[in-house]
């Protein structure tokens, strides 16, 4: 038996996850905030109560549809390097460590930009936000098997690029 929730409960329970998906789909905080706000507004305006067992999938679908309609050809801009550095846990690294970390982030950002959009979305939802395969499948409207394939291809592609970059830097 599905319990019906009030809107404030829905927002409290799902806002962070909906925002993360919106960020992955848009690539920047401002657009993600806009999509997230609009998704919740549409859910509220949709009339009827949302059933607890389907609320996250419903909100994900709204965000996906909004992103698709706003961006005919969605462009995922990678998060600014400063944002990635801020998100990296590190107890006061020294200047050399900071320089090395920035170089690694630059290389990773460059490698991520070579992935196709579907692989990049799946990988970011998994690696950056810790979503499971089934959660990614719901967020992107895919079968779990398809998500596993995208993740495998993305990881294989990234590893090849990073290995190539490492060989370039290692050779004199």
Protein model, in words:
It is a single chain. The chain has 172 residues and is mostly helical. It has two domains: 7-70, Rna Polymerase Sigma Factor, Chain: A, CATH 1.10.1740; 84-170, Arc Repressor Mutant, subunit A. It contains eight helices and no strands. α2 (29-45) crosses α3 and α7 (133-140) packs across α8. The longest helix has 27 residues, at 144-170. The radius of gyration is 18 Å and the shape is elongated. It starts with 6 loop residues before the first helix and ends with a helix. The model is unreliable at 73-82 (pLDDT under 50). Residues 10-73 form the RNA polymerase sigma-70 region domain. One of its GO terms (molecular function) is DNA binding. Belongs to the sigma-70 factor family. ECF subfamily. Pfam families: Sigma70_r2, Sigma70_r4_2. Keywords: DNA-binding, Sigma factor, Transcription, Transcription regulation.
Strand segment count: 0
Which superfamily, in CATH terms, is the homologous superfamily of the largest domain?
Answer: Winged helix-like DNA-binding domain superfamily/Winged helix DNA-binding domain
- Taking all Cα atoms into account, the compactness measure Rg is 18 Å
Q: Output the helix-strand order.
A: HHHHHHHH
The CATH topology of the largest domain = Arc Repressor Mutant, subunit A
The CATH architecture name of the largest domain reads Orthogonal Bundle
Which class do the helix and strand fractions yield? mainly alpha
Distance between the termini: 67 Å
Low-confidence stretches: 73-82
Strand share of the residues? Answer: under 5%
Oligomer: single chain
How helical, in percent, are the residues? over 70%
* Main beta-sheet strand count, sense and barrel state: none
Indicate the CATH class of the largest domain. Answer: Mainly Alpha
How many helices in DSSP terms?
A: 8
Mean pLDDT: 78
The count of domains is 2
Shape: elongated
Domain RNA polymerase sigma-70 region: 10-73
Family: Belongs to the sigma-70 factor family. ECF subfamily.
Domain RNA polymerase sigma factor 70 region 4 type: 110-158
Keywords: DNA-binding, Sigma factor, Transcription, Transcription regulation
């Amino acid at each position: 038996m599905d319990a019906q929730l009030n809107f404030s409960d829905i927002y409290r329970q799902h806002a962070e996850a909906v925002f993360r998906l919106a960020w992955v789909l848009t690539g920047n905080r401002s657009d993600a905030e806009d999509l997230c706000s609009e998704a919740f507004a549409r859910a509220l305006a949709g009339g009827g109560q949302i059933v607890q067992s389907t609320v996250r999938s419903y909100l994900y679908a709204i965000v996906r549809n909004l992103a698709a309609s706003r961006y005919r050809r969605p462009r995922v801009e990678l998060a600014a390097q400063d944002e990635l550095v801020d998100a990296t846990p590190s107890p006061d690294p020294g200047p050399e460590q900071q320089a090395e970390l920035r170089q690694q982030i630059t290389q990773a950002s460059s490698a991520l930009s070579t992935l196709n959009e579907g692989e990049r979305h799946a990988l970011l939802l998994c690696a950056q936000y810790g979503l499971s395969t089934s959660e990614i499948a719901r967020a992107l409207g895919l079968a779990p098997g398809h998500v596993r394939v995208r993740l495998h291809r993305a990881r294989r592609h990234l590893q090849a690029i990073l290995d190539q970059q490492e060989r370039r830097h290692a050779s004199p």
